[in-house]
């Protein structure tokens, strides 16, 4: 035994020494390189540019890129991909710049590179971290095959306001689930060795609180208490740092009156000093320059502010490039501050192995072999099916039979362009599977499919143009809305069942796509109402990047499937679910409001001093005109089978630090088909030194049960699960009574009680 222990101790010592040496080697390499660099070259490393072949998201595109690369005035490029383009740019840097320092190549690989997975909000509804990790792994393999080594993902901004279009890019409203997903994605992207030619450096964004923009208007002000930040908004960023994320992107918004990009408390005190982040921080697109519009001073002032705050790389705006030299002369920044930023950027390149081989990620034979492969498409299809949420299914309208006649109606039913969703910059729309194609593939010849467009996504030409400023405007049919609806109604009349595919255009959510109305555009609502009147069984498939306000639809349609934007394999995956080849199991990660007036609405809210408990009381925290509850709560999602939950059994009713409680529950599949269930554990701290949410997710397990099968699910609760940040921002647990809930969603739960004794 002693010998084993000794071996373990020696091994871990050796490991430490090796780890130290590789870190030391990196530091020595970078120090040596920096000793040869001019000030201009050091500042050059802080400059990230885009030649503008991608989608510029600000008003600026970098000029004179090639010349600046030659002069050593560019640290990295983004917005280009493909081995040939990247080789050209890298060759310029490596062959023609004085010190031959390689460039780092980044891109917005958000939910897949060329094989596009569902939008992140959809992905999160799978509650399947292994699956999500796999999507990031595939994205990394495809991205590196295209010469990239850096991706601007994961986006972990907690969002409780679906008016904000970027809710589509994140994992919803919950910090616990959001943290798990952040870790999974970083593992998938970065693997265990960043220098491998098929792993990429991740960039967690947008640090921080970007999802809390006032009124859901993109780029708007955020303002919140520290206690809310620490308990509710910061955990996923911290989880990313703990998981070893290589880079962080600062956000556009201000925090405590100082834009994140120039916020020393955020980028240095919290991120580096408190959380121990060792990588580099990049600004968002021109967010250094945008501090001028925020009212923080001229370009020199805001660039200085950013550098001093701890920002290392300036995306596109070139404020660092054009002002830091003079600011150094004027004493506004120090050489040490410039060195520190340069060192972090060079260290990232070192970790990626670019100094060993600047062409490491460039291999012309790879795209053919690794991109959009049959396996990747299959993974996308499975993932998409697992991301869909069955919101309603009365009279078992679903699954559909593989016989008879289906009327497939709606502006998104026979469409390729909108399938990929927002932020699929390298996705090829023409390679996506439309729902019409998917239905034919899955249902086979036994089903006759009749189709009609029925409506435009929107009839409003000005709105259609605003949706897609970089692309063709969302198509508007020359026929009148009445004629289109009439045709759809006629087609429906000939069918046994109607499948209506409606929702948003892909770019109605995502960046700069805030909406004040979350209704289906009027054209589509009219179509659905006409289809309801036909009396035919109606299945509504929704494609959208955010919760929509669909109380009316919930009243009228017997079946609703939330399919999000499902990616390259959208059509096949939707058909897999519609025909029951896959029994849907997705669960919402964001509450669906009844109307926009309820926003922000989220399950882990506080109780208030006057909680509403039902009825029509006066002087309670409620509304006169609508219930407090969402239409569909967090964690909600149906299956083609049913699950019953027995009562909760606790191993003990008190817990002390160092101990654990086991909560077990029997779950039975009482339906006729096998199904997956995500069993959710919530906890409520009944009294504390600060007010605590009415419920907080603290665990979940995915199980598969055959028809009639029963399984016991167990959760272990330790003191750690009861901790929170108190008013001194200390992470503590406090003795007292707790409630524990287990259920199929955040609303429908069984409950038990226990006490923490200290
Ligand atoms: C977005 C980021 C993105 C960046 C680069 C910005 O407009 O906010 O999420 O990574 O552009 O494309």
From TrEMBL:
Q: Which family does it belong to?
A: Belongs to the glycosyl hydrolase 3 family.
Q: What is this protein called?
A: beta-glucosidase
Please list which residues make up the signal peptide. 1-19
Ranges where the Fibronectin type III-like domain occurs: 677-746
Q: List the Gene Ontology MF annotations in alphabetical order.
A: beta-glucosidase activity
Organism, as annotated = Niastella soli
Q: Which reaction does it catalyse?
A: Hydrolysis of terminal, non-reducing beta-D-glucosyl residues with release of beta-D-glucose
Q: Which UniProt keywords apply?
A: Glycosidase, Hydrolase, Signal
Which domain of life does the UniProt lineage start with?
Answer: Bacteria
What the entry lists under PROSITE patterns is as follows: GLYCOSYL_HYDROL_F3
State the Pfam families in the record: Fn3-like, Glyco_hydro_3, Glyco_hydro_3_C
InterPro entries, alphabetized: Cellulose_Degrad_GH3 (IPR051915), Fn3-like (IPR026891), GH (IPR017853), Glyco_hydro_3_AS (IPR019800), Glyco_hydro_3_C (IPR002772), Glyco_hydro_3_C_sf (IPR036881), Glyco_hydro_3_N (IPR001764), Glyco_hydro_3_N_sf (IPR036962)
Q: Write down the EC number.
A: 3.2.1.21
Matching entries from PANTHER family are given as:
LYSOSOMAL BETA GLUCOSIDASE, PERIPLASMIC BETA-GLUCOSIDASE-RELATED
